[in-house]
Design brief:
The complex is a heterodimer of chains A (156) and B (747). Chain A has 6 helices and 5 strands, in the order E-E-H-E-E-H-E-H-H-H-H. With 156 residues, chain A is α+β, with helices and mostly antiparallel strands. In chain A, strands 2-1-5-3-4 form a 5-stranded mixed sheet, sandwiched between helices. Chain A is globular. By secondary structure, chain B is α+β, with helices and mostly antiparallel strands. Chain B has 4 domains: 36 residues, no CATH class; 151 residues, Aldehyde oxidase/xanthine dehydrogenase, molybdopterin binding domain (Aldehyde Oxidoreductase, domain 4); 172 residues, Aldehyde Oxidoreductase, domain 4; 275 residues, Aldehyde oxidase/xanthine dehydrogenase, molybdopterin binding domain (Aldehyde Oxidoreductase, domain 4, 2-Layer Sandwich). Chain B is built from 21 helices and 30 strands. In chain B, the strands form 8 sheets. Chain B has a 7-stranded mixed sheet, sandwiched between helices. In chain B, strands 16-24-23-22-17 form a 5-stranded mixed sheet, sandwiched between helices. Chain B has a 4-stranded mixed sheet with strand order 1-2-3-4. In chain B, strand 28 and strand 29 form a beta hairpin. The termini of chain B are far apart. Classes of the chains: A alpha+beta (156), B alpha+beta (747). At the A-B interface, strand 2, helix 1, helix 3, helix 4 and helix 5 of A face helix 1, helix 8, helix 10 and helix 19 of B. The structure holds FE2/S2 (inorganic) cluster (2 copies). One FE2/S2 (inorganic) cluster (FES) sits at the interface of chains A and B. Chain A: One of its GO terms (molecular function) is oxidoreductase activity. Chain A: Keywords: 2Fe-2S, Iron, Iron-sulfur, Metal-binding, Oxidoreductase. Chain A: Pfam families: Fer2 (PF00111), Fer2_2 (PF01799).
Amino acid sequence: MLNLTINKKAYQVDVDPETPLLWVLRDTLGLVGTKYGCGVAQCGACTVHLNGEAVRSCVTKVSRAVGQKVVTIEGLAEKADHPVQKAWLELDVAQCGYCQSGQIMSAAVLLRENKNPTDADIDAAMAGNICRCGTYLRIREAIRLAATSQRKAGNG
Amino acid sequence: MTRRSFLKSSALAGGGLMLSFTWLSAFTPAGREKEMAPGGQWVEINGYVKITPDNVIKILNPNPEFGQNVMTSLPMMIAEELDVDWQKIVVEMGPHDNAKLGPQFTGGSNSMRMYWKPLREAGAAVRQMLRTAAAQAWAVPVEEVTTKAGMLHHAKSRKSATYGSFASQAASLPVPKGMKLKAPKDFTVVSRSKKNVEGQKIVSGKPLFGIDYQQPGMLIAMAEHPPGFGMKLKSFDATEALKMPGIKDVFRQQLYAEGFEQGGFDTRSFNELLVVVGNTTWQVMQARKKLKVQWEPAGDTKDTMGGGRGPKREVVVPGELESTDAQLRNMKDYAAKPAQQLRRDGDPETAFKNAATVIERTCHGPFLAHNCMEPMNFFAHVTDEKALLVGPLQAPGWTEPTLAKVLNLPADKIEIQMTRMGGGFGRRAYGHYLTEAALISRKVKAPVKLVYTREDDMTYGIYRPMYTATYRAALDANKDLIAFHVKGGGIPEHPIHANRFPAGAVDNYLAEGWEIPSNITIGAFRAPRSNFNAAAEQSFLDELAEAMGKDPIELRLELLKRAKENPVGKNNDYDADRYAGILKLVRDKSGWNQPENKKYSRGVAAYFCHNSYAAHVVDMVMRDGQPYVERVFSAIDCGIVINPDAATNMVQGAVVDGIGNAFYGGLTLKNGAVEQTNFYNYRLIRMHEAPQKIDVHFVQNDIDPTGLGEPPFPPVFGAVANALYKAAGKRFYQQPFGPQLNTPTAL
Ligand code: FES
Ligand code: FES
């Protein structure tokens, strides 16, 4: 039995400790906002926060998350109103939407660490997240917008 | 604690668990759960509109959504005539019901075009039924009953009521036909940008996609397919796999019985799979590694074709284990042989013989994999009496009859629920994975979700075919174009659209095609033939312009003028004015002739496909020693644009997709096996490779919508090729371009 804290909630799961966190989230806990895209840390669809760091949950053993703080897209903001989520809506970034949880989770870490990212910073931080629909320009713009609103709100 | 008891307890604790009821509420807009909850309250006025007595208005979207925004844009058409407050309506994915909701096919840039009239008529009919119901109740003439944003009014008697209060009465009225529809100048919803109705759910990670679907007791299935095209399963030993935790069963699963008549979208790569079923995805993945499987060459096999694809006939699928090198050699041989004539105008042979100059170029394009972000998957629960299927599918109306035959169930016992799709691009028109899931569920007598891994998805493909084309142009002594010849071939289909531009603009014209049979499965891919042609032909036109000493846009405009004023031949399937229109628009918007833009390596291309017109100017620079597309200007004529911001998004996406595929897309084979298996060896475009700016302009007109999913994609390839010629000082004829740029002498 493994003890997990996900989105501030405690869970006990009975799974092989080698299981990637992605599949525990999706199959065992029904937290399916975190997506499977490649399984080999190539696409970023499965990005979650582990103690505040963006990690690829498809290659992160669940045992590594025991006793740590995991945040998924479902828990990024209680009312789903994180500045990044708001910017995504404001600019209607998504096409199919499948990659966007991962994009948002990566962007949220970028903006916490870098309040005023340049385009080069954005490109570098987001290079691990593939969008097959090609929404990259809007993602960049939404990150800039979120950065601005975060700074304006004074919490940046 | 067992998995099941865990599920129960955390469900009781409200632990974010996805049971089927939460699945349903995933369709509920945040904060509207209460209005949606009471079942049976909805009054259905017609297939597309349901209203509650307290005036919650729901519009059902007929077509499956894969990112082209039909879920928003199609309901907008209904709302336009229904006269409702867009902010207050609820949009829901409709059930699969072709009788009520039309063809329900997402593909071929058809959604807007096919539904433009029916949906506005449906909205107008509902409004009329509500007015009639109110007029009867108020005993006033129906003409005097007006509507505004979900309300009915009678000015003289100062009566007002909500749509909801007359919903039941309206539903009992006959559905009026032939409603007069608004003129474009009176639109208040259409042509006004509306946000994606599922945006909030997407950014908060709601379970929208097929792969997210879960049911209590559901098992996970995965399938091993042969390691190469032309291979089949010989034998297997599952002893070790079956000992793995959570594994329920391992078995061979055949898809179609011998002689099954394949129609429409029944294409499948392999007819027999080795299926592993277990409790969780990870357990099944682990068990797959323990399988001991023997594969063998399948030899030549036979497929029975028919049902919607011509008369019943047997087709031999060659058994050869193909390799890319051999394919290229084979294509060269075929290209030298006589081919099937597809169109002939004038006397091209004589014109070429008498030419002062002949330009000849050959281009190649590889197989392309769709790589939808969400891999193929489907949920199935099949019993002896009925079947429930839930998942991502573009063509439910084509798949249902297949399923009925394969399962031997009447169609009315088959329910297909369409989820949002994590991309489609044509791939999900082929519903084999749904049929596979259904057969697996029936075999294990349980609800099952079949999931392809990325590797399964990439190596079990219905790919864009491998193409080649040779273009020849004859110029006379004045450097005027006197003949044009295209001879294109492919594995296993040729790419030629014989009646497209420049057909109609050249006196002597010849189009020919040839095909090499193959066991590699191919199909729709965001206009598969067009996206190759638009690369090869538009690159060739650029070379032609240079040889003729003309500006590439001017050359195209001259040819289009000819096609308009004095067309050659018949059946030219493009409108020369609209074609010229996008070229002029992109010329103006990009500042084509402005000196300040000379610093860019600029490439232009334009193409017509799927009833719409698209042109791009690509501005390339060298960045860290590599070509980079910094800016793009796009001009599109797709008639009336339903949802401008979403349409812009889709064009921008098509441009990014086109750049990515032109530089990196490509699949190679070795002895039948696909050599690319995941994103580390099949490269997709990433953020830092996307342009800084893609400036999209739509031609403003009142032409009925003609579609947008495909059209902006093909000409990107050509514009990139033409810009690359400027940047590199030499022309590249083999897609993808990227690998050739990494050699020291390339640039
Ligand atoms: S699924 Fe984890 S990076 Fe792709
Ligand atoms: S929106 Fe479709 S993959 Fe990113």
